[in-house]
Amino acid sequence: MWELLWTSDLFHHKVAIFRDNELWDLRIEEKDKIVRNGFYLAKKEKEHFLLLSSGEKVFCSEAFPNGQEKIVQVLQEEREEKLAQVSQKLEMTNPYFVFFPYGKGIFLSKKMEEEQERKRLREIFQKYEEKGSFLIRTEAKGMLERNLEQEIQQVLKEWQLVQERAFHLKKKGNLRSAVVWMEEILEEYGKQDWKTCYCENFELKETLKEKLTFYQKQVREYHGEISLWKQRKLEEQIRVLCQEKIDLASGGYLWIESTRACVTIDVNSGAGSPRRSNIEAAREIPRQVKLRNLAGNIVIDFINCKNVEEKKEIVSILKEGFSRDHHFIQWGNFHDFDLFLFSRQRKGKELSFYYSEESLFYQVQCLEEECKELLEQKEKILLIEGEKNILQEWKKQTQCGIKDSIDFQYRKEEKESKKFHIEIK
Known about the structure:
By secondary structure, the protein is an alpha+beta fold.
């Protein structure tokens, strides 16, 4: 059974997904950022570089006309020192089909083999062929015509609104009203058997409620004294996920490191047997990769894995573990020295990015949480001492309602792990 917890803090929306009480998936989305799959109005700044109407600079590998403004779609968010990547080839995804506003033709999934059903669906979508191109998914099989037409009209209405926001209202930022990352989560988990689904201070709860009607599911709001995030000890679990060493039940352990070139995962037997550690590692690695949101080339160094049958078993376990992953995975093979290589599509940032002690936003959120805890304990906060940039950002973002009633003392940046100090009465 699955459990979902949706929440928001000062800078992020967060979704924790549990399977049989074990943390299975974790999604963190920044509130103010260029959104992957979002639509933006752009104009050419110079060759391969565009300027969005919201002011951000992005990369586009396609030829872009001079002096024109066009709608583009974000393929890849910005990360590290790389700009976000965009494309002029737009697509809008629906559970039953994909709509391409600038495309032509009706296409059907190859998995749909019944010729009569293919003909029926094609006739339904041909009525709207002048609006763009459609790729009909297998989920459309058996759908009533009126229900499918409602879905088509809803997507076409959304596309019309996107164009109005871009060219008439001159809206800055994302032109889509749909929350794409939320739709991806629901597409992946919405059809599973849910035990509970809670919202706790989730700023997009009304959008979530609306989306859940399609999956015939409901969300409950939580207002308890102790937050579900704390009850589940999620912050503690996340800190473990940000560590390089992960212990295995067999006595072995994984050592996970991210570099600019690739992610390396070293399997160590410790007190356990090599074979048992390899098998256990193959079961744990998909969970670790998904929770940490690791991507790019991933190299796993298994232990003394020479037997062909053992290699087949390990690869089978890995593929099963990633079978529900929403990221595209390209599988490699075992190479010399027991190395196994595969690549995983990059979506968003690694988990460690959001929990880096060097991150201003992380420090501000830590300060906010500490203030909330003190206020819940009926303590009176008199003064906050800390680095100027942290305190200034906290004053802009805080929801505690005390910034005008306390004193602040700025100090120079220090290499201390504790970037601030709170003085209470």
